[in-house]
Write a structure and sequence with these properties.
Helix 1 packs parallel to helix 3, helix 2 runs antiparallel to helix 3 and helix 5 packs antiparallel against helix 6. The protein is mostly helical. The chain folds into 2 domains: 87 residues, Cyclin A, domain 1 (Orthogonal Bundle); 60 residues, no CATH class. Helices cover 65% and strands 0% of the residues.
């Protein structure tokens, strides 16, 4: 436990986390290992996952960090460890999203891939509106699919108008 706590403290100070965030990460890490054995999980990965969870809440940022296989592997290990940590501590990490319902509805109703893609974008954009967060995920998924199908139907029914710039013939530049 001392190694995990030291790692949490080191990473928290490197990320310039405040004391409340650091202590929250320490408590989460300690509670996790109170419920699970050190032999089952890598202490450093779990410690990193607790700091990652606390940092994500504290910074509330959606800026991408980088690319590459090393980054992707570390990211996936942290995400898996974070989910395991939250699950062990009793947090609900299986949150239904509109995407699950939307794709199922699209398949059942045999919507085109174009309509489904448009609906996915609409359902993702809907979560930028706080009112959408109060709606059940199935309703956002179904509404996005309906709006996408109507919008694409309207777009496809209109004739395509191409605007070509007019240049008089016979005049040189």
């Amino acid at each position: 436990r001392i190694e995990a706590c030291a790692f949490v403290a080191h990473v928290s100070s490197s990320l310039l986390l405040d004391q409340a965030s650091t202590f929250t990460a320490l408590v989460l890490c300690q509670r996790f290992f109170k419920l699970r054995s050190f032999s089952q999980f890598d202490a450093q990965i779990i410690a990193g996952a607790t700091v990652n969870a606390v940092h994500a809440v504290a910074s509330d940022s959606d800026v991408p960090l980088g690319t590459g296989s090393r980054y992707s592997d570390l990211k996936m290990a942290l995400i898996n460890a974070e989910q395991t940590t939250l699950r062990v501590l009793g947090f609900d990490v299986d949150v239904p999203t509109p995407l699950n319902f939307l794709l199922s509805y699209a398949q059942q109703q045999r919507f085109s891939a174009e309509t489904a893609q448009c609906a996915v974008k609409l359902s993702t954009d809907a979560y930028f509106d706080l009112a959408a967060l109060e709606l059940p995920a199935f309703a956002v998924g179904a509404a996005s699919l309906r709006i996408a199908s109507v919008a694409l139907e309207v777009l496809c029914s209109r004739p395509l108008v191409v605007v070509v710039p007019f240049a008089p013939i016979g005049r040189g530049a």
